[in-house]
Amino acid sequence: MRPTDDDRIRDLLDEAVADVEPTYGLDRIRARTATRRRRTWAWGAGGAVLATAATIAAVVSLGGLGSSGDDEPGPADRSVPTASGGSPTGLLYFVGPTGQGPRLFAEQRQIDTSGQALDQALDDVVRGRSDDADYRSGWPAVATLQAAQLEGGVLAVDLGGPVVDRPAGMTRTDADLALQQLVLTAQSVAGQELPVTFLHDGRRTPTILGEPTSEPVARQ
């Protein structure tokens, strides 16, 4: 029988590799592949641990934030903090200078427990009674605090003086800061994050310092 082309090719290949000793390359490949799989898994598991740790750190960091921004303390949301001696404290907000313009800064004060806490705190804010000489009130000198109270789930602030319209020279930003001074301070001292209803001489008013107040004003 005449050998076919396939037979001749097979004979040539057999002669070419007759002197080559097998070295079990498949076993080495499997071994390398297994090692690579183990290393990949180990890296992946380590990455998962690092990612989990980073997530926990982020949660802890976020959970520890008690500020309204730029490392400043924020108003109490659900409870009034207490000082080391056990006396309740609240945050009073004042206007201070920064490189980006005026901003609000908080000072922690002990709260009067005789029932006049809101009145005293907001009167201090309106009049600019700050412990820091760099801080001031955003309210014009003619502004007065008539009363402040929390009753029936309503947080109300009654102001006096010519404060319905925006005074000459006061910008809208200044007016917003002044209103937020009272909103944030009232919420902190009251221990509840309620929008503030603004009154003028005991009556609802459409504006305070030219800003709309026909609806309660929320913290910004």
Number of helices: 4
Mean pLDDT: 73
Q: What is the alpha-carbon Rg in Å?
A: 36 Å
Question: What is the element string, with H for helices and E for strands?
Answer: HHEEEEHEEHEEEE
Helices and strands in order, then pairings?
Layout: H1 5-16, H2 25-63, E1 67-69, E2 72-73, E3 89-96, E4 103-110, H3 117-127, E5 144-151, E6 154-160, H4 172-190, E7 196-200, E8 203-204, E9 207-208, E10 211-212
Parallel strand pairs: 6-7
Antiparallel strand pairs: 1-2, 3-4, 5-6, 7-8, 9-10
Helix pairs in contact: 3-4
Describe the structure.
By secondary structure, the chain is of the alpha+beta class. The protein has 2 domains: 58 residues; 146 residues, no CATH class. The chain contains 4 helices and 10 strands, in the order H-H-E-E-E-E-H-E-E-H-E-E-E-E. The strands form 4 sheets. A 4-stranded mixed beta sheet has the order 5-6-7-8. Helix 3 packs antiparallel against helix 4.
Short précis:
The chain is built from four helices and ten strands, in the order ααββββαββαββββ. With 220 residues, it is an alpha+beta fold.
